[in-house]
Design a protein that fits this description.
Blueprint: H1 4-17, E1 19-21, H2 25-32, H3 52-102, H4 107-148, E2 155-157
Antiparallel strand pairs: 1-2
Helix pairs in contact: 3-4
Length: about 160
């Protein structure tokens, strides 16, 4: 049970931290009683009953969320690995098909092959590395941040 002074201190602390509490059903009851709880429904008189089925359902839900999060993180890393593998294979193709093939020609063919190889390598592979970095950044922000730090606990953010 909270009295009006404790409630006021909590609201002041929440306001200073930038968060505001979401009112609960008990807050309205306490206020309607003038901030004083009592009677047969007081917390001191009655303990909350343990409900195994409710605990079991919550544990199953958390287990499913954990497994789906693990699969999601694995898929996200596999996507980055696939992009890295494509980068490696494209580098090998550009080296073999453009640069090494041009070495069997005259000087003009070698210079032209070197220029084409440099443009392809820098252009395509730089684009792929930028995409890889962007995907990794999005993965860190959306997947890891949401899994580890975000929780919908009923406290509204008030800047």
């Amino acid at each position: 049970p909270r009295n009006s002074n404790e409630s006021h201190q909590k609201q002041k602390k929440d306001h200073e931290s930038g968060y505001s509490s979401v009112p609960s059903a008990d807050d309205g009851l306490d206020e309607s009683l003038g901030g004083v709880s009592g009677g047969a429904n007081s917390e001191d008189d009655e303990e909350e009953e343990f409900d195994f089925s409710e605990v079991m359902v919550h544990q199953v839900i958390h287990t499913i969320e954990f497994v789906l999060g693990a699969i999601s993180n694995t898929a996200s890393y596999l996507r980055l690995w696939a992009l890295s593998l494509a980068h490696s294979q494209l580098s090998e193709v550009f080296l073999e098909r453009v640069l090494l093939a041009s070495l069997d020609t005259n000087a003009f063919g070698i210079v032209t092959g070197l220029a084409i190889w440099a443009v392809l390598t820098v252009g395509v592979l730089l684009l792929m590395e930028s995409l890889s970095a962007s995907l990794h950044d999005v993965r860190l922000h959306w997947i890891e941040f949401s899994n580890k730090f975000y929780s919908a606990d009923g406290v509204a953010f008030a800047p």
